[in-house]
């Protein structure tokens, strides 16, 4: 078994994550590709991530890629976490992760609606989703508050913790938008309060990305996602990949099966790497180690 030590792993990450000066980029999309996706739970994080890996990039450059060129897109994906992804990766994320997320969220919200006494919850919720999507198509873009005025049932308030001291009934607007977003039917557009705001406007996918994309099978998409992750983050323990995807260990192993994988020793810990990616990186490139 080949051994890959911590120094080699750091060297790989310095280059592939574009932290080394020689690897930095002038293109936000190129930077996002190098990380597979960019973590974006806090709206400011992605701008800092790009700034750390870019050459003379500003928030305006990132906003251009997101809202003018639309080569990047903000979405919920792995572990129900917000990311910014290259638009070309959407078929992979949709089939590997987002479809299952939409199903899971619809079931979770449906239980609360059922407990609140709403009959035939699945039909009721899908009707509200269809009305919301239609209202958004009519407006072109809207906030959740604006859609709540167009679709009265979005203002339905549900108490998710009845009888508890911390209970506070909340409208279902966010629930419906999360489901529609996870299904790829609507997208988060430009935030209302500037680049660091989390108050987004929403747009129909049909108008935001009129070219659409060709669907993939879930199995094919999961294999492609783990292949990209292994190139960006490998070598790594399988448990790291399991955590990042949020899948079961069985799902991770199934996704890995079609790939040509090599097992390696990571300073005493078993790890995996793409079999065609075993060539070492220079340990400390002369212009790369600004640690």
Describe the structure.
The chain is α+β, with helices and mostly antiparallel strands and 291 residues long. The two termini are 30 Å apart. The relative contact order is 0.15. Helix 6 (121-139) packs across helix 8. The longest helix is centred in the middle third of the chain and has 26 residues, at 90-115. The strands form 4 sheets. A 3-stranded mixed sheet has the order 1-9-10. A hairpin with a 2-residue loop joins strand 9 (261-266) and strand 10. 47% of the residues lie in helices and 14% in strands. The chain has helices at residues 6-16, 28-34, 43-53, 59-68, 90-115, 121-139, 144-150, 173-182, 205-208, 218-233, 238-245, 249-256, and strands spanning 2-3, 38-39, 72-76, 82-86, 157-158, 170-171, 186-191, 200-204, 261-266, 269-274. The chain contains 12 helices and 10 strands.
């Amino acid at each position: 078994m080949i051994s890959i030590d911590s120094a080699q792993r750091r060297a790989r990450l310095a280059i592939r994550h574009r932290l080394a000066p020689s690897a930095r980029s002038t293109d936000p999309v190129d930077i996002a590709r190098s990380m597979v996706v960019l973590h974006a739970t806090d709206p400011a994080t992605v701008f800092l991530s790009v700034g750390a890996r870019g050459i003379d990039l500003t928030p305006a450059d990132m906003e251009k890629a997101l809202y003018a060129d639309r080569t990047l897109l903000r979405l919920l994906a792995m572990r129900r976490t917000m990311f910014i992804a290259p638009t070309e990766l959407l078929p992979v994320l949709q089939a590997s992760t987002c479809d299952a997320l939409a199903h899971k969220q619809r079931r979770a919200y449906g239980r609360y609606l059922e407990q609140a006494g709403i009959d035939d919850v699945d039909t009721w919720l899908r009707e509200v989703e269809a009305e919301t999507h239609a209202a958004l198509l009519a407006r072109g873009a809207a906030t959740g508050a604006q859609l709540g005025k167009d679709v009265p049932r979005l203002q339905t308030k549900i108490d998710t913790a009845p009888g508890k001291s911390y209970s506070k009934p909340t409208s279902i607007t966010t629930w419906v938008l999360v489901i529609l977003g996870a299904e790829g039917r609507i997208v988060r557009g430009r935030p209302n309060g500037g680049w660091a705001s989390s108050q987004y406007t929403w747009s129909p996918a049909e108008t935001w990305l009129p070219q659409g994309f060709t669907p993939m099978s879930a199995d094919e998409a999961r294999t492609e996602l783990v292949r990209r992750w292994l190139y960006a983050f490998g070598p790594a323990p399988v448990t790291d990949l399991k955590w990042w995807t949020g899948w079961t260990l069985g799902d991770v192993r199934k996704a890995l099966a079609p790939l040509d994988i090599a097992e390696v020793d990571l300073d005493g810990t078993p790890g995996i790497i793409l079999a065609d990616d075993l060539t070492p990186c220079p340990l400390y490139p002369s212009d790369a180690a600004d640690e």
